[in-house]
Amino acid sequence: MAQSRKGMPIHWQIMIGILLGIGFGFYLNQTGLSSWAAFVEPLGQLFLKLLKMIIMPLVAASVFLAVAEIGSIEKLGKLGGRTFLYYVGTTLVAACLGLFLVNLIQPGVGVDLAMSQTPDFVLSSGATQKGFWEGMLYIFLSMVPSNPFAAFSEGKVLQIIVFMLFLGVLVSFVGQSAKPIVSFARGINDLMFKATDIIMKIAPIGVFGLLVGVVAHLGLDPLLNLGKYMLTVLLGLAIHGMITLPILLYVFGKRNPLEFAKDMMPALSTAFSISSSAATLPITMECVIDRAKIKKEAAEFILPLGATVNMDGTALLEAVAAVFIAQAYGIDLSLGAQVVVIVTATLASIGAAAIPSAGFITLAIVLSALGLPLEGLGLLLAVDRVLDMCRTAVNVWGDSVGTAIVSRYVKL
Ligand code: ASP
Predict the structure, then answer these.
(1) What is the 341 CA–ligand 1 centroid distance (Å)?
(2) Among 11, 233, 289, 320, which residue has the fewest nearby CB atoms (within 10 Å)?
């Protein structure tokens, strides 16, 4: 466990790193010295690179092992079915909450989007098809790799999960000759867990460096202009993260939400600092297995899937953002269109890669499905850094709560 034997627990060290990073970054921002952030930013980049370095082998080995070692297709079906139910259910709840709040607060009314332009990375992503079905097809086809080695080298986590799930299922059909591959995967997995243990020790310094960089370069004007939009998203994230998920955890997971949140703190604060559920995954696994004592066999299956497909915060943001843009253009969305918002925001969050700003690319799918202009995305992108940090923390919190709940309902 990455908790110092003596001295301050790791979650407090990380919290202090975050607070100092925000404070120091803000000081540099306000005194016009933001270029000085370059002295500490490499600490954050090193931390991020180390996490990214282990993510692909860790995901590949754990998903493969989880499926191969469960052995029975029937058990796997139960685990998969319950995981799916929890993930889709909570994401739908988050999208509905976003839709409710954006209709209540109406942050888009009176906002001028005339100067806003579609960001280049959204245009070049290919996610801008017109229509609902084309958008959905894009999401599902992009989950399947045509070349697993390319998926590996390009860091396409969801494609690797699909490939490894497939291989893991095949182990029970192949039998004896697949055994060496299973022990090889076990070795890789153990190595990656040890690596996470070590990387987590530098997390407090890493998050400090990352946050100094983010806050020092933050332009405060867009934050003020889009205050109501940000407030709507943040309120939704707070309700989902601090009320809905803790209630589910308490009722179905039979765990004390405060204790569990304390166990998950290193993962949540890392997610907040690096805006990527995938890069946070090694730490999330360490927290769930070592600190919260959830069964490894369950966590190895549920968490990698969750990190890549379960994004409650992203679904909530996409619902708010889509209706915000409609409001700004003075377009009244019918009841049917609001249902399309919920369905597409949920599916688009599933299709979003677990990396910074990915929710923005799939937001283009939601807008296309509703026939809304994509130009509004440019304005929203200006404030997305902060929202991405918060929604990624909620995404990881949702995965962790899901692991605690689902693992109770499946005997492995
Ligand atoms: N950054 C988010 C995550 O990794 C995805 C997104 O909403 O952009 O969970």
Answers:
(1) 18
(2) 289
